[in-house]
Design brief:
The structure is a homodimer. Chain A has 10 helices and 7 strands. In chain A, strand 3 (94-101) and strand 4 form a beta hairpin. By secondary structure, chain A is α+β, with helices and mostly antiparallel strands. The relative contact order of chain A is 0.11. The radius of gyration of chain A is 21 Å and the shape is elongated. The interface between A and B is large, with 52 and 53 residues. Chain A binds a DNA duplex through helix 3.
DNA sequence: ATGAAGGTTGCAGAGATTGCAACAGTCCAG
DNA sequence: CTGGACTGTTGCAATCTCTGCAACCTTCAT
C-alpha cells in the first residue's frame, strides 16, 4: 500500500538471508543505489539493520529485542509456561507451544527434553505446517472454507515417507483431527520423532494455541507416547481454563 | 531520513508495549487516522504486525521469525554455543553470551543453570548496561572518546547499593576492566547475584562478544565464583581462537 | 431505531521521494 | 607513487507518492 515502506520492509527478509552491501540491496529491490541507501539509513536509525565493520548491512539487535517483547506480550505464553514445565517434569520429553498466524504456525515456547538432546532452540521458527501435530490442530479449527483454500495453497514436502502427501490427504487429516480433538505426528517430519498434541481453547471455544510432547522412538515407542495423551490433554485443558478466565490485557495490576 | 518509513517503523516499538487500535496508533504518531491505517496495512502485508480478533494491532509472527534468522546469522553465536554448554557442564551455573551494538548490549545466548532456577529466557533482552559484567567488557573496548561520550549519555539506575552510580565511576570501572581483561558484577544488578565475565576477541584483537557465568550467592559466594575466572577466561580464549581462524561468512562449504 | 465510535475509501493538493550526475574515499595494479 | 576502478555519498529538480480531509460504512450500545 505504501511504496516507500514496502521497499524498506522488503530489505529485512533480504538481509535475513545474510549480510549484503549497498549495491546488492539496490539491485534486489530494483531501485537506484541512492534510494537504497536512504532506506537503509532509516532502518539503521531504528536499529533494525546494523552496519558491520566491512560496511555490509545485516539485521540489527533492535529487531531481536522487539521480537522478544512481542513474544512476552503473548499472554497465552505466559500462562502456559508453568504448565509446560510441569508436564516436562512429569514425562521428561520436549514440550512445545505453538500458535497460528497468517498462514504460518510458529513455536512460541519450548521446554527441553531431560534426555540428552542437542536440538537447538527453534522458538520463533515456522513449523512444518503440513505434518506437525500442533499445526494440524491449529488449522483444523479454521472455518472449512479457509481450511480448504489454505490446504490448496500449501506445498507438501515429503520430509519422510509418512509426510502428508497432498492437499486432499491433508484436508482429510484435519477433518479427523477436528473430530477427535487431538493430533499426532508419527514420523512425518523426522523419521524417528513422534509427537502427541492437544489444543488450547479460548473462552469462545476457538483454538488459540496448541501444545505437544515430542520424543524420538529410541526413547519411547509411538504407542508408549500415546499413553501420555490423557496427560497432555489435561494440561492443555488446564491452560485453556486459566486463559479463558482471565482479562487478556492487564498483566498483574488490579486483581480486585 | 525517510519520513514515511520513519513513521512506519515507529509503530513497531509502540506496539511492542502492547496491542493498540488504529486511533491510538494515529495519535501516538501524530498523523491522521487514514495515514496510520495505510502504514499499518503495509506493515501487515509484510507480517510485521498482526490484527487480532478485537481489531487491535500487535507485533506479528514474521518479526519473531526474522529475529530468529538474525540470531542464527551471528556466527559468533554458533561457534560459541558448544563452548558455553561445556562450561555449564563444568561449573553448573548460568552462562551468558552478549554482544554490543549501537549503544546496547544484548544477550544472544544463554545456557541455564543446572540448579533449580526460574529465570525466564532473557535472550534478546537488552542488558543493564551500566552494571553487567559483560557490558563492561564490551564497552571497555571502545575507543576512549566514544567510551566517554557514551558514559555521559547513559542513565545510572541504582538497581542496588552496589550499582555503578554515575558516569565518572563507570569510566573508571571501564578503565580497570580494560586493563585487567576481565570483569565482574558483584550484586550490582540484583543484590544476590554475582557474575564473572571474560571477553571474546576477533583476529584483530577487538572484543566482539563477552561471556559470563552468573550465580546467586546462596549457591556460591563471590569469592568462590571468582575461582572460576581462569576457567571462564580459558573458555573465552578458546572461542576467540576458533572465531579468529575461520572465514566469517561460509558455514560449512569448502574446508579445503 | 438511533446515535456514537471506530474503521475505510476517493480525491486533490502538497510535499516527500526518487533517480541522476557529480563527488569523495578506498583499494589495487601498474 | 600514480592512475583507475569501485563503492558509497550528497545536491538538486521533477515527479510521483503520500497525506489529510470529508464522506461513507460497519458495529455496537442505548
Amino acid at each position: 500500500m505504501s511504496q516507500t515502506v514496502d521497499r524498506a520492509l522488503s530489505i529485512l527478509p533480504l538481509l535475513a538471508e545474510g549480510p549484503a552491501d549497498l549495491g546488492q540491496v539496490a539491485e534486489r529491490l530494483d531501485v537506484h543505489k541512492s534510494t537504497a541507501l536512504r532506506l537503509l539509513r532509516t532502518l539503521h536509525e531504528h536499529g533494525l539493520v546494523y552496519r558491520q565493520s566491512d560496511q555490509r548491512y545485516r539485521l540489527g539487535a533492535r529487531l531481536i529485542a522487539l521480537a522478544q517483547e512481542a513474544m512476552e506480550n503473548l499472554d497465552i505464553r505466559e500462562i502456559a509456561h508453568p504448565h509446560l514445565v510441569r508436564l516436562n517434569e512429569q514425562c521428561g520429553h520436549t514440550v512445545h507451544l505453538a500458535v497460528y498466524e497468517e498462514n504460518e504456525v510458529l513455536y512460541i515456547d519450548k521446554v527441553e527434553s531431560r534426555y540428552p538432546v542437542r536440538m537447538y532452540s527453534r522458538i520463533g521458527k515456522p513449523v512444518a505446517i503440513t505434518v506437525a501435530a500442533v499445526a494440524k490442530l491449529l488449522l483444523a479449527d479454521l472455518p472449512e472454507g479457509e481450511r480448504r483454500v489454505l490446504a490448496d495453497k500449501l506445498e507438501y514436502p515429503m520430509y519422510t515417507a509418512r509426510s502428508t502427501p497432498n492437499a486432499p490427504a491433508f484436508v482429510r487429516e484435519l477433518e479427523k483431527v477436528r473430530e477427535q480433538g487431538w493430533a499426532t505426528d508419527l514420523g512425518g517430519h523426522e523419521e524417528s520423532i513422534n509427537c502427541v498434541a492437544a489444543p488450547i481453547r479460548g473462552a469462545d471455544g476457538r483454538v488459540v494455541a496448541a501444545m505437544s510432547v515430542s520424543a524420538p522412538n529410541v526413547v519411547v515407542t509411538a504407542d508408549e507416547l500415546l499413553t501420555l495423551l490423557p496427560l497432555v490433554r489435561r494440561t492443555a485443558d488446564a491452560i485453556s481454563g486459566e486463559y479463558s478466565g482471565r482479562t487478556p490485557v492487564t498483566p498483574t495490576n488490579d486483581p480486585a
